[in-house]
TrEMBL record:
Keyword Membrane: yes
Residues that span the membrane, as ranges: 29-55, 67-84, 90-114
Source species, domain of life: Bacteria
Name of the featured protein: Rod shape-determining protein MreD
UniProt KW keywords: Membrane, Transmembrane, Transmembrane helix
Length: 171
């Protein structure tokens, strides 16, 4: 139960950062999806908490035509987060976070191409869409890395480390 409250609190705290001034695309969206599915005993509850935090913040920040693609990216990231359920080494977290960032970039920019009339609806337009989005990818990747590091580090400090101390054999 303690893990549930701490993990939920961490997700909500990070989601609130969306209301603070930040560089474009520097957000916790991908991090909460990875984290929620990795640390909650029930991965579906973890993803649901993460998704609800984003939906509520999007309600206040404003809805847009590509939100279904953002939420689909979160769902796909939750599958990646499942890969962290048993092994949360730093290298593994970094690799899966990078994979999630690339996944988010591809899916959401495909959403921009499909839902908005910014680019010609042909292969060249698709290429232009992805090329124009590249400058935003660095902020997205940086945000994913920072927020993922914060979530998993804080979870380790407040949940994993104390549990290990309690279960360690007395000497």
């Amino acid at each position: 139960m303690r893990n549930l409250f701490i993990a939920t609190g961490l997700i909500l705290a990070v989601a609130i950062t969306r209301f603070l001034p930040h560089p474009p695309n520097f957000s916790p969206v991908m991090a909460v999806a990875l984290f929620g599915s990795a640390v909650f005993a029930n991965r579906y509850i973890g993803f649901t908490v993460a998704l609800l935090a984003m939906v509520v913040s999007d309600f206040f920040l404003g809805m847009h035509s590509t939100l279904p693609f953002v939420y689909a990216s979160m769902l796909l990231a939750a599958f990646l987060g499942n890969l962290l359920r048993e092994n949360r080494s730093v290298l593994r977290i970094v690799a899966i976070t990078m994979a999630g960032s690339v996944l988010f970039f591809v899916v959401t920019n495909l959403g921009v191409f499909i839902m908005q009339d910014l680019y010609a609806k042909n292969l060249q337009g698709l290429g232009e869409c992805f090329a124009m989005a590249l400058p935003f990818f660095q902020n997205s990747l940086a945000g994913d890395m920072v927020f993922t590091a914060v979530l998993f580090s804080m979870h380790h400090i407040f949940v994993t480390a104390p549990e290990r101390r309690l279960s360690a054999p007395a000497v």
